[in-house]
Amino acid sequence: MTNYTERTFSEEVRAVETLYPAVYRRFHRSGSAVPGTELTVRMGGVLQALASRGPQTLGEIAGALELGKASVTELVDRIEAKRLVTRIRDDRDRRRVFIGLTEEGEAAVRALGEVLEDSSLRDALGRMTPEDRKNLITGLEALVRAGQEERHG
Questions:
Q1: 3-state SS class at 117
Q2: At what angle do helices 69-81 and 41-53 cross, to 10 degrees?
Q3: Among residues 71, 72, 81, 75, which one has the least CA distance to residue 104?
Q4: Statement: the pTM of the whole predicted model exceeds 0.70
Q5: Which of 36, 66, 74, 139 has a 20 to 30 Å separation from 47 between CA atoms?
Q6: Does residue 50 contact residue 61 with C-beta atoms inside 8 Å?
Q7: How far is 20 from 14, CA to CA, in rounded Å?
Q8: pLDDT at position 17, please?
Q9: pLDDT band at 36 (very low <50, low <70, confident <90, very high)
Q10: For the domain bounded by 31-115, which CATH number is listed?
């Protein structure tokens, strides 16, 4: 995460939209279902990683989410049973298998991305002073960093 720089209001809204799920994922019990879905937070993390980076190997997903490969394998198996991901063999190296989103998986990611209601968030942020928005974003970035340091420290 970067230090705070001058941002437009739209960039501030986007920063909060990006930071809030990171805070939610970091401090929410990972075995709990995401409200309105049959997915756990960790399953949602796998789907969001695939949505942002495209098809990946199990090892790449594990690295991105800072989870063990065995845990990711189990998560992907469960997500695949829900038909949200598919396994794709590498044509050049048949031993390599990529995990990619299905159309249903893409829809699930869109639903997961709606953690905050855009209009309510925009309205609430609009009622804050620019200084308060800056402090909120800086504070959320610090919280995410502190949570990551706890995991590694």
A1: coil
A2: 90
A3: 81
A4: no
A5: 139
A6: yes
A7: 10
A8: 76
A9: low
A10: 1.10.10.10
